[in-house]
Amino acid sequence: MVGADLVFRAPGSVQILWALAVDAVREVIEAAHTRVIDEVVDQMETGLLIVRRGKDSTPERAEPGVIAARFRHYESRDGQPLLHDHLVVSVKVRRTDGHWGTLHTRTLLEYTVALSELYNQRVLEEISAAAPASSRAEALTRLVPQPALLRLTP
């Protein structure tokens, strides 16, 4: 394995708001999405980078920092609106002795749910903090163009 693909996708309520909102609101959501991904990666770099070393494969913390590429997509494979980022992380990390080693990916796998929940919680907090309205229903009717709202009339 040469890398791990981490996918960051906001909860469904955020996805719906992002898909239906005016451009200014979409920009706020995308900015929050980007900031929170950076926070999660920082968390991963400072606590979850473990490298194995020596004949007995002794685990040790790697130096903070990863080699990664981020790709942003705005649609799902079937063409539906879906804001999400792929972060492809190299398994090569710098050991504390300055040499390169291989990331122990099991640690990342074990913390996948925790990292995902951290992302979900933080992105909701960021967007809620930026919301100009006092209630979510009021915010939705103000931020989403009226023709996009579903109307249940015969």
From TrEMBL:
Q: Which Pfam families does the entry link to?
A: TrwC
The TrwC relaxase domain, residue ranges:
2-128
| SUPFAM superfamilies cross-referenced by the UniProt entry | Origin of replication-binding domain, RBD-like
Q: What is this protein called?
A: MobF family relaxase
- Which superkingdom, per the lineage? Bacteria
**UniProt cross-references to InterPro entries, sorted A to Z:** TrwC
